[in-house]
Amino acid sequence: MSAFKPTAHLLFYSFVYCSTCYVVLKLFSKRFGGTTFYSYVASPIAFKKLEREQFSILQHNIFPMFFQMQAISPVILGLTAPIALTTGAIASLVTASVSGALNYLVLLPVTRGIKEERKKIANELSGEELELKDAPLRKSFGQSHGLSLLLNMTNVLGTLAYGIYLSKGVFKYIPK
């Protein structure tokens, strides 16, 4: 037996650990950065620069994948964590995942239904009658949209909290 075998063995496992850390940190960075950038930079700019109908089409096409990513990626991050997950880290991932799932499974269909109803009424009615029927729908849309924004912020904060736990765990292994 070679005297170098134990060292090679340790080097292999430290390489695997570092590779895993790299992949997880890359996934976390893309997930957190992408969600934060789209929610708080790209979407507000698109809202200001695009016509209402164009913005609606953009959001209609992005949100299903966006909310699926918000629901699924915390599970992937938890399953591939290069550190032992504490209760706080698990709670932050669960919070992020549940808020994304609620946005996707509950609020997305509700807001789409309200928008379709508003379009239908706008095609059928006009004037005062349209205003009377549309006012409660606008209010409902505003409420569901506000709740969606709250869940989105909860998702971002849950992911941020996990990032703090992740960085504390990974930094323990960096030589001083």
From TrEMBL:
Can you list the GO cellular component terms from the UniProt entry?
membrane
Which InterPro entries does the record associate with it? TMEM205-like (IPR025423), Xanthocillin_Biosynth-Assoc (IPR053009)
- Natural source organism: Kluyveromyces dobzhanskii CBS 2104
Entry protein name: WGS project CCBQ000000000 data, contig 00041
- Report the Pfam families cross-referenced here: DUF4149
Mark the transmembrane ranges: 6-25, 147-166
Residue span, TMEM205-like domain: 31-119
Q: Where in the cell is it found?
A: Membrane
Look up the domain of life of the source.
Eukaryota
- Keywords, alphabetical: Membrane, Transmembrane, Transmembrane helix
Signal peptide span: none
The keyword Transmembrane helix belongs to this UniProt entry's keyword annotation: yes
